[in-house]
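Exam review. A common question shows you a sequence with its C-alpha cells and asks you to describe the fold in words. Practice with the pair below. Do the first one on your own.
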Amino acid sequence: MTLSVRDHDVSAHFYRSVLGLQPQRPESRGGPRQTVFQLPGGPVIELVQHQDNFKGRFDSRRCGLGRLTLAVANPGVLEAWEDRFTRMDVEHTPVAHTAEGSTLVFQDPDGTELALFVPADPDTDED
C-alpha cells in the first residue's frame, strides 16, 4: 500500500516514532522520496513524496483511501496503544466498542485516517 505524503521527513518520523515501524528499504535516489515499512506479519506501507505534490491535507470526501485499518491482537493491546497515543499527544478518538469489535482511530500528519482494530470474540454460547 502506498501513501502519498506532503512532507516525507515528517511522515516517516511519525510512522517510526508513533507506530514504532522500522524502514525496510532505503529511500530512492533521483525520483520521489520514499520509505517502505513492513508491518509485523502484515502489509507493506510505502510513503512517497512526489516532487509536484499539491501540499493539501487528505480529504476523505475525495475518491481514494478512506481509512487504513490495522489489526491488533487483543483489547489489552488496543488499550496500550490508546495510552501511548495519549502520552505522545497524538490526536485520537476514544476506543469505540461495537458488536463487531473495538476500534481506535487516529490520523497521520497528512490527515490520512488510520485505525487499530481488534475483532470481538465470537459468541461461543451454545443453546
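Now try the second one, then compare your answer with the model answer below.
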Amino acid sequence: MSRDFDAHRLTARILGVALAVTACNPPRALDGSLAGWAFVLAASGAAWWAAPMVDARPVLNSMRWAAVAVHRRNTLLAAGAVVLAALTAPAVWLAACVTGLLVAYLLLTDGWTMGATAPAGVDRATPALAATAAAAVVFAASTAPVADTAWARLPAALALAATAGCVALSLRHRP
C-alpha cells in the first residue's frame, strides 16, 4: 500500500472518531460516571473500526444485513453519528461541530470527491459544495424553535423516516 493511501485511512479514522465522540455530547456523557466514559470509549472504538472505506472489490457475497453492514460500515458510521447526536440533544455549538465533522467525513470518504470514481475532467467541487449547502440547510432546520409548539413531532417524525429510508436505500443499491 502507498503512503498516501495509509495517510488517507488514518485521516478517515481520526475524523470518524472525532465525529463519534462529538456526537456523544461529551459535556453530558462525561459527567464523571463510569457508564458515560464506557459509552464514549465504545463509540470511539466502533468509529476507529468503521471509519475507513472498505478497499475490497464490490462483490456482493450476501444480502444479509450483517454482511451489508460490514461492507457499508462507513455509511453506518455517518448515519449513526446523526442519530446519536439527535438522541443526546447537544447544544447548538456542539451540533454545529457535529455537522461540520460530518460533512468533512463524508467528503473525505466519498469516492467521487476524492477523484477515485469521478471521470477525468469532471468537476468534483460541485458535489462537495452541494453537500455542504445541504448540511447547512438541515442544520438550520434542526435548530428551528419548534420544540414548544404543537408541530414539533411532525418534522421530527418526517426527518427520522427520511433518514431511515435514505440509509436503507444507500445500503441496498450501492455496488
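Model answer, second protein: The chain is about 70% helix and 0% strand. Residues 3-173 form one domain. Full marks require stating both points clearly.
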